């Protein structure tokens, strides 16, 4: 007689706390937790080099928190899930939704196949504050401008759901046979260029919580102004943790609110609106999935890019001769991260000064950023290029010298990466 177990599929939600699908799976029965590295359905945007390092370490941390009961698979989730279901006579499958076009297509297919075989599929929102299909203008079309989207659409609708505590009494089923190990996913290259990340980052759910607490106590009080200065400690640096779902935006939203003196505090409001920008990126990706590689504003399709390979290489290496641009690109290479103000400066420089297609910048960021996120990456590059929704107009160009003088007046940040 087989045990009565349900299947929970981890995706971009590598945490136990505030994980809605996991919470309801655990309520139902003993849970078999799995992670599948999908090398079949995610076509163009297979995970980039730096992000692989993070994913590897994140899975190690997650497995520890599950007392080593995480089962690892590689391949096509449709096949993998089918095999597991047959092997353990599973009737219920749980996961949190993904919002990128490839995953949506894949998940629909899996869900309908499972339903055809009388398997119940339960899906939840574990990564956004608001579902993108719920926020529409009065004429039922999607927003294309951030401020009305956020103020009227999001804040004017329901409150984000409260975070759910993980129940320590949850019981997990551990597969004893034919388990792959995390190492078998080969996320780490043989050439260990990524070792440098160890001195800057500790992936995992515990570390995400520490990072948030740290930001609330040290960075939030001067966030609105301080966030523009890359040498200051006023940014949260939570983006890679959010990207892999080691902390949920709901946890962040309510921690920030609970720790602020009032909702009207300008620093709190500003930080929450930055979470709103992330929502907007996901919203655009959901309603306009073409943004990953196509100009949202079609007039840009005729733009005469110069795509000079030598110039592009110098930009990637941080050897343009413009101090703050080079500092940003070297910070990216060294730490897998770049301060947001500097991201705008290097992005504008590539597209507006060097006339290189934003997609080339997006490609490099995709490979080098630990927080490389399809929604944020594509919408932000289109924003800088002027080709996206609510974008900076094409004639607005960040002057890299003035930006350096204004936001790094003593050269403190710049000298750290460009001695």
Structural description of this entry:
With 419 residues, this protein is α/β, with parallel strands linked by helices. It is 46% helix and 7% strand. It contains 17 helices and 5 strands. The termini are far apart.
Layout of strands and helices, then pairs:
Layout lengths: L4 E6 L9 H9 L1 E9 L10 H17 L5 E5 L1 H12 L3 E5 L4 H16 L3 E5 L21 H9 L50 H14 L4 H4 L12 H5 L5 H11 L6 H22 L21 H9 L5 H13 L4 H14 L4 H11 L5 H12 L14 H8 L4 H6 L2
Parallel strand pairs: 1-2, 1-4, 2-3, 4-5
- Output the radius of gyration: 22 Å
The shape, in one word, is: globular
How are the strands of the largest sheet arranged? 3-2-1-4-5
- Average residue-wise pLDDT: 94
* Classification by helices and strands: alpha/beta
* Series of H and E elements: EHEHEHEHEHHHHHHHHHHHHH
Note the gap between the termini.
Answer: 67 Å
User: Helicity, in percent?
Assistant: 40-55%
Q: How would a crystallographer describe the biggest sheet?
A: 5 strands, parallel
Beta-strand residue percentage = 5-15%
Number of helix segments? 17
Stretches with pLDDT under 50, minimum 5 residues: none
Tell how many strands the DSSP assignment holds.
5
What descriptive keywords fit this protein?
single chain; 419 residues; alpha/beta; 5-stranded parallel β-sheet; 17 helices; 5 strands; 46% helix
Sum this structure up briefly.
The chain is an alpha/beta fold and 419 residues long. The protein has helices at 20-28, 49-65, 77-88, 101-116, 146-154, 205-218, 223-226, 239-243, 249-259, 266-287, 309-317, 323-335, 340-353, 358-368, 374-385, 400-407, 412-417, and strands spanning 5-10, 30-38, 71-75, 92-96, 120-124.
């Amino acid at each position: 007689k087989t045990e009565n177990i349900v299947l929970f599929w981890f995706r971009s939600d590598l945490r136990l706390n505030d994980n809605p699908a996991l919470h309801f799976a655990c309520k139902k029965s003993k849970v078999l937790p799995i992670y599948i590295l999908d090398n079949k359905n995610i076509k163009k945007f297979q995970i980039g080099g730096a992000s692989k390092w993070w994913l590897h370490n994140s899975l190690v941390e997650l497995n520890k928190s599950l007392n080593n009961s995480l089962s690892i698979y590689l391949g096509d989730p449709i096949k993998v899930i089918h095999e597991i279901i047959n092997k353990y006579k599973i009737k219920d499958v749980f996961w949190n939704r993904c919002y990128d076009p490839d995953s949506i297509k894949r998940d629909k297919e899996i869900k309908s196949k499972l339903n055809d075989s009388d398997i119940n599929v339960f899906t939840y929102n574990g990564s956004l504050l608001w579902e993108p299909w719920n926020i529409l203008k009065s004429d039922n079309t999607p927003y294309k401008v951030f401020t009305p989207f956020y103020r009227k659409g999001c804040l004017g609708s329901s409150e984000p759901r409260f975070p759910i505590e993980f129940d320590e009494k949850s019981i997990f089923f551990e597969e004893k046979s034919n388990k792959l190990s995390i190492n078998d996913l080969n996320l780490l290259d043989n050439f260990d260029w990524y070792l440098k990340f160890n001195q800057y980052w500790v992936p995992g759910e515990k570390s995400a919580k520490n990072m948030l607490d740290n930001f609330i106590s040290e960075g939030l009080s001067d966030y609105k102004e301080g966030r523009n200065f890359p040498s200051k400690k006023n940014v949260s640096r939570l983006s890679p943790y959010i990207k892999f779902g080691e902390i949920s935006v709901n946890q962040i939203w309510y921690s920030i609110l609970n720790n602020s003196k009032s909702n009207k505090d300008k620093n709190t409001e500003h930080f929450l609106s930055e979470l709103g920008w992330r929502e907007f990126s996901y919203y655009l990706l959901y309603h306009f999935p073409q943004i990953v590689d196509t100009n949202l504003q079609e007039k840009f399709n005729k733009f005469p890019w110069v795509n000079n390979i030598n110039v592009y290489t110098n930009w990637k290496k941080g050897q343009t001769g413009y101090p703050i641009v080079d500092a940003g690109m070297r910070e990216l290479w060294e730490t897998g991260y770049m301060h947001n103000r500097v991201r705008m400066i290097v992005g504008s420089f590539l597209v507006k000064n060097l006339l290189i297609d934003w997609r080339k910048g997006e490609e490099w960021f995709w490979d080098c950023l630990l927080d490389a996120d399809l929604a944020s990456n594509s919408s932000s590059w289109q924003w800088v290029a002027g080709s996206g929704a609510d974008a900076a107009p094409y004639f607005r160009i960040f002057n890299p010298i003035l930006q350096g003088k204004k936001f790094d007046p003593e050269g403190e940040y710049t000298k750290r990466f460009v001695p």
